[in-house]
Amino acid sequence: MIMCRISSKGQITLPKRIRRALDVKPGEQVIFVVKDRTVVLQSLGPVSARSLAGSLARYQRPGSSAQVRESVKKEVAGAAAREG
């Protein structure tokens, strides 16, 4: 049995043996599955570029990358000018 304390903020630190057993690294995600007062911790594994594919689609604008870059430069310059 491995124990750890809950901080005043409700946080825990995963003991090294658990991190090794799950093969989790800083920045990776885990999920907690709760059933009948029992919690199962599962690793989601490392985040890959493939898993992020399409996540920025809502920001897509028509045009070439050069046109988009120029448009962003103008927006940033305008915002900076308004700030003074």
β content, as a range?
Answer: 5-15%
Kindly name the structural category: alpha+beta
**Shape by Cα distribution:** elongated
Physical arrangement of strands within the biggest beta sheet: 1-2
Radius of gyration: 22 Å
- What is the helix/strand order? HEEHH
What does this structure look like?
The protein is an alpha+beta fold and 84 residues long. The chain has a domain at 14-47. The protein has three helices and two strands, in the order H-E-E-H-H. The chain has helices at residues 16-22, 49-52, 65-83, and strands at 30-35, 38-43. Strands 1-2 form a two-stranded antiparallel sheet. A hairpin with a 2-residue loop joins strand 1 (30-35) and strand 2 (38-43). The longest helix has 19 residues, at 65-83. The radius of gyration is 22 Å and the shape is elongated. The relative contact order is 0.09. The mean pLDDT is 84.
